[in-house]
Amino acid sequence: MKRSFKTIALVLVIAVFAAIVAACGKSGGSGSKVSVGIVLPTKDEPRWVQDEQRFKDALSGSKYTTEILFSQGSSAKEKENVETLINKGIKVLIICPQDGDAAAAAVEAAKKEGIKVISYDRLITNTDAVDYYVTFDSVAVGAAQAQYLVDHAKGSGEPLYLYAGAASDNNAFLFFQGAWQVLQPKIADGTFKIANSSEAVALKDKKDLSRDELSKIIGQVTTNWDPNEAKNKAQTHLTAAAADMKGDVAILAPNDGTARSIADVFSTDSAVKSFVITGQDAEKASIQYVIDGKQSMTVFKDVRTLVKDAMGMAVEILDGKSPATTGSYNNGKVDVKAKQTKVITVDKDNVKKEIVDSGYYKADEFKGL
């Protein structure tokens, strides 16, 4: 009987200890307070999964806590995530919107609770509820892509295929604006001829486009940031293209995921002799494509710096300080204070230096480096 009592007591002690350990192991779990809430667009793109880990690393060891939620491409889920984080007592919300306009309602709910809002990488539009914007220089991204195409143009009359991001994403407009300002003079002088957009052809003599004019072109060549949509669009364009729209071609692809899909389509068309194609984000799969010569370049946006800037801002706010900024972006309603990070063009010539030697990725993650 005495032995049974000891056994039961030991089991109870172990159970209590296990419960305590489980509770301590939770970070921002149900019912616990969270300092910084982070909402990212989707787990289906490697870029955002990388950001998740870097956000966790950035706040590791500090006195503040964080919780990261994904919207999986749904503005409704995004709003639900923000409401969940508000209920957990967050003081700062870092959010990369799925749709810049649609996210306005979510951040306005946060602002009503006195929460500071940092728009991360993509600007939330048409609301005064955004306090700060941490971003890469988006216009410079498009300009870098376009400059690469210009620098690698072959003669004159080279077919130019244009693709863009999602029309619901303000960044897609900034990327395309930056690219168009570099490409337009080379379209006007005959270096390039537009292959897949009647709207772009109609505006080929105008360097500075209005938002409505950009919207017309983007609406025609959008990929919605979806590799499958990019693939289908590229197949449609090549099927419809006349013989003089093949040969050596230039392709403005908005990011790495769409670039790989578009490149795969163009590489299977025997009438396409060669192509130069842009990208953005330095995803691992695209770095391998660059090494293999299947994608010409990518624009490297060092997410480590962007995460560091966003978390630095959040900590300064939590410490009662005013974060330093380097400029502002008008979001359609107010000028949002912003901190910008520079971008780097990466191709086969400098991929090892910029991507591996800098410690962004490890050499053993690639073949043929």
UniProtKB/TrEMBL annotation:
Mention one GO molecular function.
carbohydrate binding
Periplasmic binding protein domain span: 36-321
**One GO CC term on file:** outer membrane-bounded periplasmic space
Domain of life according to the entry: Bacteria
UniProt-annotated location(s): Cell envelope
Which PROSITE patterns does the record match to this protein? Answer: PROKAR_LIPOPROTEIN
Lipid metabolism among keywords = no
Signal peptide as annotated in the record: 1-22
Fetch the InterPro entries from UniProt: Bact_Solute-Bind_Prot2 (IPR050555), Peripla_BP_I (IPR028082), SBP_2_dom (IPR025997)
User: SUPFAM superfamilies this protein is in?
Assistant: Periplasmic binding protein-like I
User: What keywords appear on the UniProt entry?
Assistant: Signal
The record, for PANTHER family, names: D-XYLOSE-BINDING PERIPLASMIC PROTEIN (PTHR30036:SF1)
| Protein name (database record) | Sugar ABC transporter substrate-binding protein
Q: Lineage of this protein's species?
A: Bacteria, Bacillati, Bacillota, Bacilli, Bacillales
